[in-house]
């Protein structure tokens, strides 16, 4: 007797095997997810950076006055604003003061900050406490620092002149902020005092990342402390130095509040910079077109500096 053969048939409604996911659909989903993360940053940049920048450029070619806010009429006047600003002798003076102020501040902040970073790189008692105290100028708002230093540098009642007179190092009436020959130097020194903590903290962090084995190897080879610093420390610290100088330039070239608090651009425009000139044109003389021109010059200077920085980094990376 033979056994009948039973053939299994798939049950009705049984699930079919899952097919492989479509590569194109996965790629599209991945691309949408990427744009989903990028879109908020792009929208933010366009609203808060792109639109003000374009509006400032357009305003520099318009006759823009307080009346414009009510009438909405701001006719284009071609390059009149630009020619008026460039023909003004104060613009050339402000540009020169900006370059001197920026270069002097960066040089002083970096050199003193690097020296302090190297000093604190060695462990010693109360080192952390002293580092914390040095950070105080960086934590105080710049306007407050400017007002305090204005009192300290006062010609008649300032603490600095009183101290110098007491120790016999001065006449007691040095015009730190009231002399056209000394005002810019005084402002630079105050800005150096404010920027030292930032430079010290960033450079100190860079020094901590340098392997100690490199210094030990240099010492075994008989290298002096200066030779080790020049041939080992500085090359290893170069990326951090670049970041410090770039950030320092960007924050220094546009400083306004400190100069307003100390000298308000005086005396006799001795401390007038592009930042203060933009403020005075726009909000004191209410010539918004001229203020936009000076602001665009500041933006152009920063853009040129950024391009050189990016090209230098690209060259080093090759």
TrEMBL record:
Membrane topology of the entry: Multi-pass membrane protein
InterPro entries reported for this sequence: MetI-like (IPR000515), MetI-like_sf (IPR035906)
Keyword terms: Cell membrane, Membrane, Transmembrane, Transmembrane helix, Transport
GO cellular component: plasma membrane
Residue ranges constituting the ABC transmembrane type-1 domain according to the UniProt record: 95-309
Coiled coil: none
GO biological process terms on file: transmembrane transport
SUPFAM superfamilies noted in UniProt: MalF N-terminal region-like, MetI-like
Transmembrane spans: 35-54, 94-120, 132-152, 182-204, 240-263, 283-310
Record localization: Cell membrane
Pfam families with a match to the protein in the record: BPD_transp_1
Keyword Transmembrane found: yes
Residue ranges, annotated region (Disordered): 1-20
Family: Belongs to the binding-protein-dependent transport system permease family.
Name of the protein in question: ABC transporter permease
Species per Swiss-Prot/TrEMBL record: Streptomyces griseoviridis
